[in-house]
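Kindly draft a sequence, keeping tokens residue-aligned:
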Amino acid sequence: MIIKSMSRKTKSFSQLYHYMKSGSSLSSEYDVFRHNLYATQDKDIVREFLNNARFVKSRKNGNYLFHEVISITKSSKLTLAEEKQRLLDIIQVYVQKRCDRNLVAGYLHDEKDNNVHYHLMISSNEVDSPVNQRLTKFEFDKAKRETEKYVIATYPELEQDILISATSKQRKTHQSNKASEVKRRGGRLEKRENVYKTLNSIFAQSKSMQNFFARLAQNNIQMYNRGKAIGFITLEDGKKYRLKTLKLEAEFKEFETRISEPEHSQKEEDKKRGQAAEKNKQTQSSHTTSQTSSQRSVTELERRKAQAENIRKQSHNKDRDRGKEH
């Protein structure tokens, strides 16, 4: 089990709260933790932290909150739900020893392959207190040691190494075991490297989404989505690999952009063709209008000529009649 603590000297409650929540799958009743909080809605929880922080007199380099992470390695004997249930109980024990009178909000994250962990946001002061909690390094270490001892004694099925309260002999044993683990993980890392190379090749060679999924199937790989996260499963062993963990996000985005370009180009081509057809239609219409106008002009000219000719003939006839009279 590992416990990390990070202090913050700004009132960044909203940012940390939404970071914790957005990273949680929220797939079980064990994924959310609240302590000394009346609010249940996100904005109200953040407001409660802010209101409590106003009791503390501002001072240079003073802390406003703590961001702490409590992590346990995944066990081969338990399901994910069983691990979550035990971790929530561990969080309750830890908070009771570390900050029983403070405001605490937390969310469980389970996206890692080898551990589940809780993110906690802890107010620097106790509820309505004008001063920050006085927690010495000795007291903090004591809370961590007692929590670890509780875990080892209560949940042996979690298979946690003794790290925080380990004796020098236990530390040496752990270091020896860690060396063996590194050697054993060599095969695991080699497998991940193979998956990396296979997926990278598929991203580069696929010409369409249909072709992409066909190549995945040929390599016994299946794609999955978990919220906004994208991952891949090797069907032969059911092992999951997140795109982010494999560091292939840029390659996958490039692939998506590439296969969308032909469709975009086709749309642009269709648009250009439509514009050309419309322009041609307008030209033809203009030409037809021009012809009609010309025809009308010719007809009008002929009509006027005919009228002039009639007038000339009438005038000529009148002159001739006068000549006869004389």
Remarks:
- The radius of gyration is 40 Å.
- Strands lie at 2-8, 32-35, 65-73, 102-109, 115-126, 221-226, 229-234, 239-242.
- Residues 23 and 109 are 6 Å apart (CA to CA).
- The chain has two domains: 2-166, 186-253.
